[in-house]
Amino acid sequence: MDTTLVVYNSLNGKKEIFKSILPNNVGMYVCGPTVYSNVHLGNCRTFISFDLIFRYLKHLGYKVRYVRNITDAGHLENDADEGEDRIAKKARLESIEPMEVVQRYTLDFRDTMAEFNALAPSIEPTATGHIVEQIELIKEIMAQGYAYEINGSVYFDVIKFNDDIPYGKLSGRKIEDLIHNTRTLDGQSDKKNPQDFALWKKAEPVHIMRWPSPWSEGFPGWHLECTAMSTKYLGKQFDIHGGGMDLKFPHHECEIAQAESINKKAPVNYWLHANMLTLNGKKMAKSTGNNILPGEMFSGENSIFKKAFSPMAVRFFMLQAHYRSIVDLSETALEASEKGFHRLQEGISKLEALPTSPESSDFHITVWQNKCYAAMNDDFNSPLLIAHLFDAVKYINAVSNGLQQISKTDLAGLSKLMNVFFFDVLGLLNTNKKQGENGNKQLEGALQLIVELRNNARAAKDFQTSDLIRDSLSNLNIQINDTSEGSTFKIN
Ligand code: AMP
Ligand code: ZN
Q1: In CATH, what number is assigned to the domain containing residue 283?
Q2: What is the CA(275)–ligand 1 centre distance, in A?
Q3: Of all atoms in ligand 1, which is nearest to the CA of residue 283?
Q4: Per the domain annotation, does 7 fall within a domain?
Q5: Is residue 285 lining ligand 1, measured as CB closer than 6 Å?
Q6: Statement to judge: residues 189 and 240 lie in one domain
Q7: Of 230, 247, 274, which closes a domain?
Q8: What gap in Å lies between CA 207 and CA 16, rounded to an integer?
Q9: Of 274, 293, 321, which residue sits at a domain end?
Q10: Interior angle at CA 27, CA 124 and CA 68, nearest 5
Q11: 295 and 392, same structural domain?
């Protein structure tokens, strides 16, 4: 089996063979959320994409140090260097401490990712926990001559840097175009050049998130934290840096400039960018209101979709697209994924009791296994892997219906691989078995009781109540079937 992994490197737009700096070890940094509000499904898509990558690297046997930060300071409202800090603003509006905002939404983020069965990163550092490292970094950049102080704020000198080391390598933007395109925002007059960016900002009197520094009482620029924390935990050069496509510029471009200004070498070997989740054909974003929260999706309490979708159905939906493709969230697509996910689960459940024969018919496990790995080795092509899993389900169903045969050895191999890909690599859960034996028994008992109460309501011609019970259960993906012998339920 070939385990050569090829990844698409955003730095040069090419697929390259992945080679880690240290054999069998991978250092991976992914920009985490800015914790000033609940994460929306778009954010989740990016983190689920990197969860897939983390899981597959681990599956290949790498010891992965996965660092994903929490941005809890320095991210200003307009992504540029002006405006209020997003967290401070929320704290002001709600009359609470900024750290209460941070705590609330960090917990929400972690709970949400756990619902999606995403693995926790190895380290989850915060910007406010690394102010000292950020100040040290600014000193080093200044010592190299690539930053200047004006009125207590420090800016990175993009023009001077670009004279020595080309700026714009990742985004492909040319400095001349930047000069031409950059709007002069209010308050940017402090900067020597409009394309320079803040490393340290002097805090206005109203700004509540502030720390002492050699230049002023203030706060770090947004791009700095990722350079400080990735370097601290992964070194001056590491393997993979990831984030959503929208972070390529300016965030990641500025990260490269900061690191290169000190070390004079590229900080990251492979830049990986996940593409956007859209809703109604437009990027899902907090600022525009064009978004849906995971909780609203799971409960069905939203005005966009007619029914609820479970975390695993949504995860499966996302994995059915390649991480570099744009995906639009629609009821039809979600329903199709939900159906497919159940078909896959049913196929896996059938494996245990599949009858065996002396010989397998024309399904070649080794060939199939190679195809599955080839898909994932080709830049983590999860939709292709899932298509191969469906081929296996077709075969499982045919064996189950007596149309094809499988040998004992092949069944053991197929079961192992199906489980590995479904649970370990794709990170899916078998929702039919989620509660464990006891949980299932309790749930079944409770549902039996509800069905009986509904039967009583029907017998008393109280159809309002019986319909309400059926519809509410249906929203939870529990289906009631009324037959001549009575009503049964099915958990989808
Ligand atoms: P933020 O909390 O805004 O810093 O975003 C956290 C992560 O979510 C970043 O990697 C963004 O690139 C990513 N992101 C934001 N919007 C979307 C979207 N609509 N689809 C996919 N990823 C997104
Ligand atoms: Zn970052």
Answers
A1: 1.10.730
A2: 9
A3: 19
A4: no
A5: yes
A6: yes
A7: 274
A8: 45
A9: 274
A10: 20
A11: yes
Distance CA 106, CA 314 (A): 21
244 lines ligand 1 (CB under 6 A): yes
Comparing CA positions, the residue from 19, 28, 64 lying closest to residue 47 is 28
264: amino acid identity, one letter: K
Whether the CB of 33 sits within 6 Å of ligand 1:
yes
Please give the pLDDT value at position 117. Answer: 98
CB of 288 closer than 8 Å to CB of 282? yes
Grouping H, G, I as helix, E, B as strand and the rest as coil, residue 166 is coil
Query: Ligand 2 centroid vs 230 CA: distance in angstroms?
Result: 9
Q: How many CB atoms lie within 10 A of CB 220?
A: 26
- Give percent above pLDDT 90 in the chain: 75
Q: Is 43 in the pocket of ligand 1 (CB under 6 A)?
A: yes
Q: What is the pTM of this model?
A: 0.88
CA 99 – ligand 2 centroid, Å: 20
Q: In a 3-state reduction of DSSP, which class is residue 92?
A: helix
Task: Indicate the top mutation candidate among 246, 279, 290 to test ligand 1's pocket, ranked by most ligand atoms within 8 A of CB.
Answer: 246
Mean pLDDT across 451-477: 84
Mutate to test the pocket of ligand 1, among 29, 35, 39, 46 (most ligand atoms within 8 A of CB): 46
Same domain, 336 and 424: yes
Q: Please indicate, yes or no, if residue 5 is contained in any of the structural domains.
A: no
Bridge partners, residue 480, by sequence: 489
**Phi and psi at residue 310, to the nearest 5°:** -75, 160
Which domain does 384 fall in, by range? 278-434
Closest ligand to residue 255's CA: 2
276 lines ligand 1 (CB under 6 A): yes
Ligand 1 and 79: CB distance under 6 A:
no
* pLDDT tens digit sequence for 298-353: 999 999 999 999 999 999 999 999 999 999 999 999 999 999 999 999 999 999 99
Indicate if 107 and 217 belong to the same structural domain.
yes
Q: Share the mean pLDDT of the chain.
A: 92
306 CB burial (10 A radius; 0-12, 13-18, 19+) = exposed
Q: Please check whether residues 29 and 150 belong to one and the same domain.
A: yes
Q: What is the CATH number of the domain that holds 107?
A: 3.40.50.620
Same domain for 213 and 336, yes or no, is no
**370 CA to centre of ligand 2 in angstroms:** 36
Compute CA distances 230 → 69, 97, 211, 290, 420, whole Å.
Answer: 9, 28, 21, 31, 31
Could you tell me if the CB of 284 is within 6 A of ligand 1?
A: yes
Report cis status (omega within 30 of 0) of the bond before 121: no
Does one domain contain both 383 and 299? yes
Is 34's C-beta closer than 6 angstroms to any atom of ligand 1? yes
Residue 340 CB–ligand 1 contact under 6 Å = no
